[in-house]
Amino acid sequence: MPRGADRSEYQSMAYVDFRDVEFLEQHLNSQGKLLPRRVTGAPARIQRQLSKAVKRARHMALLPYVTDSIR
To answer: What architecture is domain 8-59?
Structure first.
């Protein structure tokens, strides 16, 4: 997502589900690291939920911890 992305998509979200792997992958860079808020445009509440969801998805083996070919 480009810098200053449209935040309206986040307004309707109640929570971030760790099983929604496609959504989580949009917020990861090519190495599998979580992108910062200034890049994704996510509000602080959603960014905190994203962080926990990515950690849970990694623990459940839905996402890799480290990779060079996530995309």
So the answer is: Irregular (4.10)
